[in-house]
Amino acid sequence: MVESFFPDNLEKALELRQKKEIRPIAGGTDLMVRWRRPAGILPAFSGDMLFTKNIAEMNILQKKDTCLYIGANTTLAQLIEWKWTPRLLRLALLEMAAPAVRNVGTIAGNICNASPAGDTLPPLYALDAVVCLQGAAGIRELPVSSFITGPGRTVLKRDELLIGIKLFFPAPDNDMVFYKKVAVRRAAAIAKVSLAMRGSKKNGYVKTIAVAIGAVGPTVVRLPEIERLAEGKTVLNAELLKTIYGEYDKFIQPIDDVRSTADYRRQTARNLLHHVYDNCIKWN
Amino acid sequence: MSDFDIGKPVRKVDNDIKLSGQAKYIADFHIDGMLYARTVRADCPRGIIKRIDIPVLPEGYFSVTADDIPGKNIIKFLADDWPFLAKDRVNYFGEAILLIVGPDRAKLLELAGRVYIEYEMIPAILTIKDALSNNFTPIFGSDNKFASYNYEKGDVDRGFSAAFKVVREKYSTGYQKQAYLENQGMIAVPENDGKISVYGSMQCPYYVKNALVQALAVGEEKVRIVQAFTGGGFGGKEDYPSLLAGHAAFAALKTRRPVAVLYEREEDTAYTPRRHPAEVTLETALDREGRILGMKADIKLNGGAYAGISEVVLQRSIYNICGVYNIENLRVTGAAVATNTVPNGAFRGFGAPQVIFAIEMHMESLAKIFSYDVLDYKKRHMAKQGDRTATNGLFYDEIKLPEMIEKAQEVSFYTSKRAAYQADPELHKGIGISLFLHGCGFTGSGERDIIKAQLKLRRKKDSKRVEIFAANVDMGQGLQTTFRKIAASVLDISVADVIFAYPDTDRVPDSGPTVASRSIMIVGRLLQKAAERLKKRWQENNDIEIIQDYEAPERIKWKGGESSGDAYPAYSWGVNVVEVEIDPLTCETSVTGAWSVFDIGQPIDEMIVEGQIQGGMFQGLGYAAMEVMANDENGRSRQNNLTNYTIPTAMDFAPIENHLMKTYYEDGPFGAKGAGELTLLGAAPAYASAVAQAMNIHIAKLPVTPEYIMREASENE
Q1: CATH architecture of the region A176-280
Q2: The pLDDT of residue B180 is above 90
Q3: How many other β-carbons are positioned within 10 Å of the β-carbon of residue B543?
Q4: Identity of the residue in B264, B587, B638 whose CB atom sits nearest the CB atom of A38
Q5: Nearest CA in chain B to A266
Q6: Secondary structure of B319-375 in the HEC alphabet?
Q7: Whole-number pLDDT of residue B3
Q8: CA-to-CA distance for B84 and B98, rounded, in angstroms?
Q9: Averaged pLDDT for residues B544-568
């Protein structure tokens, strides 16, 4: 018999996590769909469920100095409305799913679902988002890129909960932002490919650049070392660009599936990448 | 009556009950003691059933197999090949083999999962090519064709022998799923006297009834079919409900309890009929000036595993192959072939969307080869009143295409945009126009020889209210309102004083199925005539019943065996313009504009017609652009829900601007012709033409996905 628990504070929730095999569920827009069964039959959850909605500590949404803290229960719709939400992230949220899903689905859920096509992931990778995990041993903070290890896989420990996300604000910049989700239709669709980019310039040279590409590999592709090749430059010569694109090509390894083809994804990801380097970053 | 216009919209009579959620669809029915049935399906595409192991069922649970069918285990269609439940062999992945029936749906799921079926596998035929390759044991007959046709008009050989140039092209189109909001569902209730009542979501109550009479081997009085509120059909509830009703009825008879068969979206999407994929080859002989001297057309439809109604779909394909063009010398061959895939069936347009796409794109190719403006070239070949149809019938009524084209050009700025986009390929913009027609009603002499529709109208003594008795259903298209409007308008009474209950075969005569854009034009006409007769007797002080039988217009001449004569009594016409802009990085298309001009005669309600147009064109654009459905190596659909089978949302295309060219059709009520299917036909070719211009590619298949555009564009480089 599957049991459901609705703890109202983090202490009780963590106690449950420690005591038993129990799965956290926030908005349920992924889990309810994954475990749903035909009409008239209850969902087939394999074990006990921990509903996080009442956990006060996970309902925080605040800006403190330069840090945005987004509690794990924050819904996608709340983030669209929140005035501090970084533009790059909002662009992705606005194209995500449909209003009904955005009203209950959470950003923490999107992270923990760890789909290579997760819509918030490329912006979060590009924004250097940090996830806050709390367990018996205390809190640990990890870049989202280290938290997710593969499709549906994260380093969340059995006794931990993802309690919130940190973003840094003012995000080092919002000078240059590009977001593109390629999907079969304009709403209620899963990405075939997506790309998020942000960059900043100072005195005419590029100070930072961050590019994250979704749905072209087991996890979102972001290559900080390659990004650094462009930093500090006022112009990229053809040779350097070729090197940069060549490095990305090694990681753009999409698959054929029911939504699209590997060929299309590869070419589209390349086109978007080239577009970002050629046109979005305003070289002098 | 001079300035009376029946087209003026009224409030749809079922708005309130539907919007408030009070309408009871079949899944909302709760009948005491009702059991549910779960279907156990083949998990291989083709094989001999060697063994069926059903687990020991708890008390109150039952299995229903082919052996429980009292009558003929064949669904009543044109050919005797499709069993309700497979007995010895299966012919497609997902074919129904048995039912597990009982009160608890979770338990049914578990029990069904424990049924074990062993097969001796037979190599499966999965494509049209395989179907005709002679490398496989045929599924149907000796040539593996459910039907094959050929006919000729004029002198094709002479046309070709005089040709300056011959152009041969191949076009192909994919599946399309009806994707109605409400999944298929039926509930059968055993009555005391051996009678069975079946309630459900359907388009054709009498098809279901006739199928059950045969399958149960009972008299007609022992089967009663009642339509429940129906959440969309689009053809998908023309054929399949007969199978579903059979399942429910067999189970109800065996268990002596009401039994519900309610499909899930996954089951419905993957295992119920969809639009036939087609391969169309057009070969055209032309003179020096590009005039068409003759055309050879070959059409192959993938019928799936059983014949179903594929032959009739094929007829519409082969008889509409010329589109709106006057081709004097024509030779047409066509076949519906058998494959080990889900049997394909009816879908809005019924074999026409495939060929309208092909002929429109082919005409565009011919124009390009001779460096003519596409629209000018099409206009030069358009049929006009008095010309002969593909089957040598007569275009009897005036054809208003020239005025319709002019209107479409005026509202869309087609001509100037076409030139501007051609001049600047870097814009990646395109605009396309399609011209098309739809033969209204049944193909050939079906109405006269097979359907023989009958309608009844009644006014009781001392009542001012009138009741319509007809078997035609409202499935969302508005028939509850339009039929009432026709009767009310003739009798000069209020719409509220017309009763039109959902069809119940114990109460209504067989006015035929709700298909083929026939309800208004054919049955609505019977209704108008009946109402006119009733009006003459209005002053009588007693019960009045009017029975109205179909009479074919005398001018209609049709020789079915020779495919010669008037394949349809009338034609509706359409012009669509679609404008697109393509993102060269992703090859995603934005539909930035869509315009239509339709001639459907007199609209019975302009708002309802507007609904048909908006829905039909979106459905057509979905078919054109995004609705991908493909089979895996077992012939099983890879798409099985609305996340992976992607129909468009309201956000996907620009709003559609519509105009009606009002004409008067003498054999339709108030001058009305068919409207429902026509609206889907023109979107795909107009869209494909626009995309072809925007990316400077040739488009030879549907759907035109970004993946396809990118591949074609890269090959062009």
Answers
A1: 2-Layer Sandwich (3.30)
A2: yes
A3: 11
A4: B264
A5: B586
A6: HCCCCCECCCCEEEEEEEEECCCCCCCCCCCCCHHHHHHHHHHHHHHHHHHCCCCHH
A7: 57
A8: 9
A9: 94
Residue B623 CB contacts under 8 Å (≥ 6 apart), including other chains: B176, B275, B353, B680, B683, B684, B702, B703
Residue count of chain B? 717
Q: How much is the CA Rg of chain A, to the nearest whole Å?
A: 20
| DSSP designation for A68 | E
**Domain shared by B239 and B370, yes or no:** no
Q: Which two three-digit tokens encode residue A40?
A: 């008239």
Q: What is the pLDDT of residue A234?
A: 83
Q: Is CATH 1.10.260.40 the classification given to domain A4-168?
A: no
Residue A278: DSSP 8-state: I
B131 within a domain of the structure (yes/no): no
How confident is the model at residue B2, as a pLDDT?
43
Q: Would you call A258 and B644 a contact, using CB atoms and an 8 Å cutoff?
A: yes
CB pair distance less than 8 Å for A190 and B643:
yes
Q: Enumerate residues 640 to 699 of chain B having a beta carbon within 8 A of any beta carbon in chain A.
A: 643-644, 646, 648-649, 651-652
One pLDDT digit (tens) per residue for chain A, 284 residues: 899 999 999 999 999 999 999 999 999 999 999 999 999 999 989 899 999 999 999 999 999 988 999 999 999 999 999 999 999 999 999 999 999 999 999 999 999 999 999 999 999 999 999 999 999 899 999 999 999 999 999 999 999 999 999 998 765 555 789 999 999 999 999 999 999 999 888 887 888 899 999 999 999 999 999 999 998 888 888 899 999 999 999 999 999 999 999 999 999 999 999 999 988 776 54
Pick from B585, B515, B510, B581: which is nearest to B548 by CA? B510
Q: What b/e sequence results for B177-190 when a residue is b if at least 16 CB atoms lie within 10 Å of its CB, and e otherwise?
A: bbbbebbbbbbbbb
Concatenate the DSSP letters of all residues of B503-516 into one string: PBTTTS-----S-T
Q: How many structural domains is chain B composed of?
A: 3
B297 plus B428 within the same structural domain: yes
Q: Is residue B158 part of a domain?
A: no
**Burial (Cβ within 10 Å: 0-12, 13-18, ≥19) of residue B355:** buried
* Domain of B645, in residue numbers: 278-443+566-716
